[in-house]
Amino acid sequence: GAGVSQSPRYKVAKRGQDVALRCDPISGHVSLFWYQQALGQGPEFLTYFQNEAQLDKSGLPSDRFFAERPEGSVSTLKIQRTQQEDSAVYLCASSLVWQGHNNEQFFGPGTRLTVL
Amino acid sequence: AQSVTQLGSHVSVSEGALVLLRCNYSSSVPPYLFWYVQYPNQGLQLLLKYTSAATLVKGINGFEAEFKKSETSFHLTKPSAHMSDAAEYFCAVSGGTGRRALTFGSGTRLQVQP
User: Fold this and answer.
1) CB within 8 Å: B36 and A55
2) How far is Cα of residue A34 from the mean position of the Cα atoms in its chain?
3) B24 in contact with chain A, both atoms CB, cutoff 8 A
4) Hey, is B85 helix, strand or coil?
5) What is the pLDDT of residue B113?
6) Secondary structure letter of residue A97 according to DSSP
7) Of A61, B71, B83, B97, which residue is most buried, by most CB within 10 angstroms?
8) pLDDT digits (tens, 9 = 90+) for B81-94
9) CB spacing of B43 vs A101 below 8 angstroms
């Protein structure tokens, strides 16, 4: 496809359930980012991959959050034992290799997670 | 550490009026600055970016922003608002060794009145 796609677009989970959110980046994009956007807030960084290597996971809020990109393309964000405070929109973005003048990140439509 | 402050969570203008959305940043290194727009139930779309080539940056849909280092500002403007400009706007900063992620402001919701 032409852009970043994410699935599912909407996910409702009961507290304590595990969820998996998928991101398909733009073909050929080396860098992949996950952000969390709470209601009424700006996106906040979760984690970053360059190819299959997770270079920065400093934004993951707890050890219940786990992300992977095993083949350097599709990425999955997994949240274990979901809590109500995990309710948010999860955005995925991809970009070409980090270059000073070319760090435009292309965003997917997001997955809206609601934890009941 | 980097941070972004967007003054005014809501801005309302009349159609045809000037749009001014304010953004101030804090960065210990020369920053890269971005403005993104978000329509309901959609991802963020890049409006424009500052990468040190020129202080006045022109973007899509008639928007532009001026980088002012002395004021640590990167305000977004558009001379004449259109109804289709109604959306959420986010200012973001990146830069620094190893810091590839964007740091976003809390956003400004723009309303355009007919």
Assistant:
1) no
2) 3
3) no
4) helix
5) 96
6) S
7) A61
8) 999 999 999 999 88
9) no
